[in-house]
Every structure is written in structure tokens, then in C-alpha cells.
Design brief:
Layout: H1 2-31, E1 36-43, E2 47-53, E3 56-63, E4 66-73, E5 78-80, E6 87-95, E7 100-102
Parallel strand pairs: 5-7
Antiparallel strand pairs: 1-6, 2-3, 3-4, 6-7
């Protein structure tokens, strides 16, 4: 039972991470080039990978019942890499002509 509670908390934290990242990226994009923002987001332990595929942030998280892979949709194209280690991530979002660069 406690494993499922821990999994739910971890997945909620992952969802919060993704939604804050996407909301910030959309704000930067719609403000236009050369807008830039630096954000700090918490990533929980158990995240195996974070992939950015055009309009999606794909996060694979280890749970007690196996791996959970979720895609979070963005209204703007994204590019860049985010490491999957646990902790506070300081990310720089920069508006380009037709996408947002994440570094």
C-alpha cells in the first residue's frame, strides 16, 4: 500500500514538473524572440529519462508496478535536453523563431 502512495506522489511531482515546464515554455514562445526565462523545477527520484520530441515532453518514471511512460503535450515546439537526475533543475528557456530552446 505504501508503495502505491509513494508512486502516486512521485507521478504527481512528475506531472507538476512537466506542466510548469510547458507553461513557462509557452509564455516565453508567445512573448517572442529573443525572450528568455530561467526556471527552477523539482524532479523527484525514480525518473529514468526525459525526452523532448517536438511538441511533447516524454518522461519515463520507475514505479513499484513497472515503468510509467507519459507524454505531456506542448502547444509550442520544444528542443533541448534535460538530465533525469533527482533534484532542483535550473532550466533556461529561450524563444527562437519557431521553437523554444531548453538548456
Amino acid at each position: 500500500y505504501s508503495d502505491s502512495i509513494k508512486d502516486r506522489i512521485r507521478l504527481n511531482q512528475v506531472e507538476k514538473f512537466a506542466s510548469q515546464l510547458i507553461n513557462s515554455a509557452e509564455s516565453v514562445f508567445f512573448a517572442g524572440e529573443p525572450s528568455k526565462a530561467t526556471i527552477s523545477l523539482y524532479l523527484p527520484d525514480g525518473v529514468k529519462s526525459i525526452g523532448i520530441d517536438s511538441n511533447y515532453v516524454i518522461i519515463t518514471t520507475h514505479t513499484s508496478s513497472g515503468d510509467n511512460k507519459r507524454a505531456f503535450r506542448s502547444d509550442v515546439p520544444l528542443q533541448g535536453n534535460i538530465s533525469s537526475g533527482e533534484g532542483i533543475k535550473k532550466l533556461v528557456l529561450q524563444a527562437k523563431e519557431d521553437y523554444v530552446q531548453i538548456s
